[in-house]
Amino acid sequence: MLPKNAPKTKIIATIGPSSWDDAVLKRMIDAGMTVVRINASFADHAEMRRVTEQVRRLSGRIGIMIDTQGHKLRISSLSSPFTLSQGQPFSLFTHPTADGVYIETDSSVDLAPQVPVNAVVLIDDGAVRLQVTEVRGSEIVTVVTQGGTVSSRKSVMIPGITINFNGMSKKDYEDILLARELGVDFVAASYVRSDADILSIRELLSDPRIAVISKIENEDAVTNFDRILEVSDAVMVARGDLGLEIQLERVPVLQKQLVSKCNTIGKPVIVATQMLQSMTKSISPTRAEVSDVATAIFDGADAVMLSAETGVGSYPAEAVETMARISREVEKTVLPVEASSTMIAKPTTNAIAQAVKDCCDVLPVDAVLVATATGTTARTISRFHLRQPIFAFTRDPSSARKLSISRGITADVFTDSSSTRDSGIQLLVRSAVEKGYVTRTDLVVVVAGSNILGQGETNMLEINRVETIISA
Predict the structure, then answer these.
(1) Domain check: are 208 and 357 in the same one?
(2) Which of these ranges, 2-6, 135-139, 343-347, 413-417, has the smallest mean pLDDT?
(3) Residue 127's CATH number
(4) Angle at CA 231, nearest 5°, toward 229 and 234?
(5) Does residue 37 carry a catalytic annotation?
(6) Residues 252 and 204 both lie in one domain
(7) HSE (CB half, 13 Å, CA atoms) of 312?
(8) Which value, in Å, is the radius of gyration of the alpha carbons in the chain?
(9) Which of 27, 74, 202, 261 is catalytic?
(10) Which of 284, 304, 331 is the last residue of a domain?
């Protein structure tokens, strides 16, 4: 069971060397973590298997996300690091050379012809900056505009340039197949540029139970966002690489715009990267980081994510605890919002969701109980950012875990053995009492369909005291 004081905003935490231990993971779960992220850029298949099995053993309700590497350019392996100085000429090659530094990729791409003169090349997330002065065959001639140390396997980025990688990388292909085999709940697609990228992942997964999350981290993704959102199950505003691909000052505005679009259509949205970065080494965050988390919640984020803080940081459990404390405090001041009908739900479901919101506005409702087959009804209600908690019940553990990135929803598995809708609702409410979600004196709104948890249209809303329902 999630802690009773769990925040409405969901917390995704990256699992790595700092958080592999069972005791640490349990602390993170108890603190409010709802999804674990496995970063495929650093995890091999053995680690993905081990972490997936470990999380499933510890909790059946925690979501598991595999975050793909995407198309990566990296510095080749070097015998030793070296330093570049501002103004120094420097050449990068796009194929292995005997005595030069070259760019590695696991994709089939003819890189050099796609790099124009005056393009900016970033090494190690922008720690070193180069400007292209000439391209000669496989040699990219540059001048150093920001010096620094270059070492093996550091990232290479060319902002503003759309590189044709000729399809999915071999690593992503193999990692996605493994995600399907392991039955994870989410695949986060890195460096998405168009809706076609998402459709190709869906085709490879061939499993509708695995949600596909589009990571927005380049100019193409911003330009094509509406079409990407249409075919995605959820979106991650990945501000790290986004802030390298576009001007930094645009990121806060884009964050608000993208979150708002996701809220409008009713699809979960995650804000990620460097949210509590100082907690990688410090037990306390900076004031600016606390404000950053708060801003994401005020903007309407369903979930916030921790990366290095919990993957390789010194205080992984404390980072989750801090994120939860910030969320709980900020959520006290977040007011319910108006929301128009969404295309993800049927008209009747939209009408029921609006009615739930109206009831919660004018009545002293303590909780909303939703019987749902796929989670769509619960997500549709969640869009209103109710003050009241939403408890969603479904037969399918996978559907329950997919709600682990949706704001304000606690999802649970419930097996309906009733013969009628009335008896089904009674059993559901009894289960909510037994699990400690509600008390017998609470006023609840119950939402369900004619066959409670089966496939079909949500068409029933009941407002009543828990005692009255279970004593009927």
Answers:
(1) no
(2) 2-6
(3) 2.40.33.10
(4) 55
(5) yes
(6) yes
(7) 5
(8) 24
(9) 74
(10) 331
pLDDT, mean over the chain: 94
Asked if residues 429 and 470 have their Cβ atoms less than 8 Å apart, the reply is yes
Residue-wise pLDDT for 96-108, tens only, equals 887 789 998 877 7
Contact 213, 236 (CB under 8 A): yes
Asked whether residue 162 is domain-assigned, the answer is: no
Please say if 136 is a catalytic residue. no
Q: What angle do CA 197, 229, 303 make, to 5 degrees?
A: 110
Instruction: Clarify whether 295 is annotated catalytic.
Output: no
User: How many CA atoms does the CB half-sphere of 385 hold within 13 Å?
Assistant: 22
Counting every residue, how long is the chain?
472
Same domain, residue pair 190 and 63: yes
> Does residue 2 lie within any of the structural domains?
no
Catalytic residue among 72, 129, 154, 215: 215
Q: Considering the domain boundaries, does residue 290 fall inside one? A: yes
Same structural domain for residues 176 and 196? yes
74 among known catalytic residues: yes
- Domain final residue, candidates 111, 135, 157: 157
From 8, 10, 37, 401, active-site residue: 37
Q: Could you report the per-residue pLDDT of 301-335, keeping only the tens digit for each?
A: 999 999 999 999 999 999 999 999 999 999 999 99
Which pLDDT does position 121 carry in this prediction?
96
The structure's pTM equals 0.94
Whether residues 66 and 77 share a domain: the answer is: no
> Tokens at residue 113, please?
């012809």
Note down the domain range covering 108: 73-157
CATH number at residue 382: 3.40.1380.20
Q: Which of 9, 273, 372, 380 is the catalytic position?
A: 273
